[in-house]
Amino acid sequence: MKRRVIGTARQRVGEEERDQVCTGTYRGDLPDPRLRFNVMFVRHDEPFPMHGHEYSELVIVLGGRSTHRTDVEDYPIAEGDVFVINRPHRHGFPDPERLELCNVQFDPRRFFAGERGLGEMMGFHALFHLEPRWKQSRRFRQRLRLSPAELAGTRALLRQIESEFRGRNEGRETAVRSLFLLLASRLSRLYAEARRKAPTPVARLASAMAYARTHLSEPLRVGTLAAITRLSPSQFQRAFRKAYDTSPVRKITELRIDEARELLRDPARDIGSVARETGFSSASFFSTQFKRWTGLSPREYRKSVGGAR
Prior knowledge:
The chain contains 13 helices and ten strands. With 309 residues, the chain is of the alpha+beta class.
């Protein structure tokens, strides 16, 4: 079956340039089912149409400029800008001028699941989750723009990732995963540093999510999270629903279930301790909630992932 092509860009690999097509699909763009990853240095000389991806895409602007067209708005991008496009959002470049990008395409479930350290970073929540879906005007003013020195360091790390990805050295998958997580944590730190002196609505919501992630074993009240964002509880709930398309209570339950999934992989942890560590009042309530979210009891889930001896 002929694959659907969204558009074509010029890709540079080493000293060579070649046409690179984009299909927006895992099968077409990220064909390795084990890694589910791709990194490309590309140049856009012609308009690139609006499109979406099955995967997530981290974009670092290395040179040139363009309008970045999204489902929400159009805004200018230039050297040093960093943004993420998650499914199902679409984007395109209607008027590129010598636009050079590094596109890092990845499966967020494959790379971010169980990464507790990232989940505790305000910048990670903002850059990788909130920014791509924020529905307020003047969105670009909240984005991450790297200084020349920061961009140079990021470019060097991207080249290292590309070298490991295109090579066939022993431990390739581990190296690619480790370097990409290093990139994500560096960019998340830079985002947090840029927003520390001038926090934005996105940064405040992201701070609340980072707080929730580090206090899952404790009671988490909407009023506590609202205070972090400097909003009233009702304002916080409206802003949260606009950003996440769900309520704070439901999102916290989702975080707790995700954490429980990771803890259940350890056969040394009993169900009661997993319930306590993830903030559920009792093992029975935890089991009920876990099955409601996953369709499996904690014991059934543990067996399904090979966590039980």
